[in-house]
Specification:
Layout: H1 18-45, H2 52-56, H3 59-72, H4 74-84, H5 93-99, H6 111-122, E1 130-133, E2 139-140, E3 144-151, E4 156-162, H7 166-184, H8 194-207, H9 210-223, E5 230-231, E6 244-248, E7 253-254, H10 263-284, E8 287-288, E9 296-299, E10 304-307, E11 313-314, H11 320-328, H12 333-343, H13 352-369, E12 375-376, H14 382-394, H15 405-424, E13 427-428, H16 431-435
Parallel strand pairs: 5-10
Antiparallel strand pairs: 1-3, 2-3, 3-4, 4-6, 7-9, 8-11, 9-10, 12-13
Helix pairs in contact: 1-3, 1-7, 3-4, 3-5, 4-5, 7-8, 10-15, 11-12, 12-13, 13-14
């Protein structure tokens, strides 16, 4: 793909007011819609029947979305990052390839906006505490950007600074994004978005609370202290607050650099991540639910996996582990249905025909994970099967049920992990891993 002017993140002020952010979303929708109209006119002129999906999901529209979301940041960018994780089953590969730039690098704040944010967090004169503070961030994401700094007492730190106005714009961003999701066809028309968007709003507020994230990072450091396969940054509480989160800097590489590693190493790392997810559900009752690939890093010197970004960490209802253990061990349809009802996948009074279609989906997923021998993530069509069955089910008027929020966040994490394993081309036995959590 030829390079574009969006290949490198640039400095741009974060729009802070509700009006400015609504205008940004409106401009994005208008730009995408204008291209659709022009494309439809060309197809009609050439005697073709316009295809909405083909007109909407184009590289030109992806570039427009990428540029606007990278500038807006906040909740708007978070949605774009989740879209970018797709492996080509939900959006065309060309579209996903452009959106992928959103995952690790958004636009960053210009120096003056950064200085103002740090003056507010630390007070004027804060620079005297550092030997070096790199103004250009080492990473820019949806809610904040990360800077490397060296303190006068010798600490090599990564310091995450929240974008101004992000916390106060979450509610309006989520409300405005509802219409955009409908426009893009990312959700079935029959689905009531109210519950989903409310949970997204609550989750984003939690992610924007850096004091909470610092505490969750410290908790993960404690539960994984005896596991040499993982490394968690150490919180630097004296430099942390609601809008700034300081931690020790860990030299590492993006997890996706492993795509060129030997098969054995890719398999080992994916096995570690699957075991960690199972521990989170069945042992820790503590899960980092943000599936963004950028939250995983790799240290080639030690082979350790570095875990980052704990804003989306949550504890589950105490019954969740037992319910999913029962589902994992359910081998006939009545047992699967009983577990599904206990978890809350559907209500008992749902039409039997729709229940059967849901159970069909669950049996497909369970049988794939229970297969004998290695599971080849690179060659499986499980994601496509589930996508097709889920989209078809979503069009049913009888089915508008939303599972419990704990289940939604757990699925989000597992789905992201599945896509990462697919990206790395792992080929590992899954059944023995599940059996360890009987």
């Amino acid at each position: 793909m030829p390079p574009s002017r969006f290949d490198q993140p640039k400095a741009s002020a974060v729009p802070g007011s509700s009006f400015a952010r609504l205008a940004g979303l409106g401009g994005m929708v208008a730009g995408v819609g204008g291209r659709m109209v022009l494309g439809a006119a060309r197809q009609v002129a050439s005697g073709q029947r316009p295809n909405l999906a083909d007109l909407l999901l184009t590289p030109a529209n992806a570039v427009k979305l990428t540029a606007q979301l990278a500038q807006m940041r906040g909740a708007a960018l978070k949605v774009g990052q989740l879209m970018s994780m797709d492996s080509g089953d939900f959006v065309p590969p060309e579209f996903a390839a452009i959106l992928v730039r959103l995952r690790a690098d958004a636009n960053h704040m210009p120096p003056q906006q950064l200085r103002t944010a740090l003056d507010r967090a630390w007070g004027k004169g804060w620079i005297s505490r550092f030997i070096k503070f790199d103004v250009r961030p080492i990473a820019s994401a949806s809610i904040g950007q990360v800077h490397r700094a060296l303190t006068k007492d010798g600490r090599d730190l990564a310091i995450k600074v929240q974008y101004p106005g992000v916390r106060t714009s979450i509610d309006s961003d989520v409300a405005n994004l509802s219409g955009l999701l409908r426009l893009l066809g990312m959700v079935p028309k029959t689905l009531d978005l109210t519950t989903l968007l409310e949970q997204a709003r609550v989750q984003l507020h939690e992610e924007a609370d850096y004091l909470r994230e610092g505490a969750q990072m410290a908790r993960y450091g404690e539960v994984l202290a005896g596991n040499p396969a993982f490394r968690v940054p150490q919180l630097q509480a004296d430099l942390s607050g609601p809008d700034v989160l300081a931690m020790d800097f860990i030299d590492s590489q993006p997890i996706e650099t492993l795509t060129t590693a030997p098969q054995a190493e890719r398999d080992r790392v994916v096995t570690l991540l699957i075991r960690l997810a199972l521990d989170e559900v069945f042992t820790f009752n503590l899960m980092q639910t943000d599936p963004n690939f950028a939250n995983y890093r790799y240290d080639p010197a030690t082979g350790r996996v570095v875990l980052l970004d704990f804003g989306a960490t949550r504890t589950f209802d105490p019954d969740i582990a037992g319910q999913f253990r029962a589902l994992k061990n359910a081998y006939d349809r009545p047992a699967i249905r009983h577990s599904a009802l206990q978890i809350g996948y559907f209500p008992a009074d749902l039409a039997p025909a729709v229940q059967d279609r849901l159970l069909d989906m669950m049996e497909v997923a369970l049988s794939a994970l229970r297969q004998q021998g290695p599971f080849d993530f690179a060659r499986t069509d499980l994601v496509r099967q589930m996508r097709d069955m889920g989209f078809s089910l979503g069009m049913e008027r009888e089915f508008a049920h939303v599972p419990p929020v704990d289940v939604l966040f757990l699925h989000r994490k597992i789905g992201g992990l599945f896509l990462l394993a697919q990206r790395l081309g792992a080929c590992i036995p899954i059944a023995p891993l599940l059996a360890d959590y009987a």
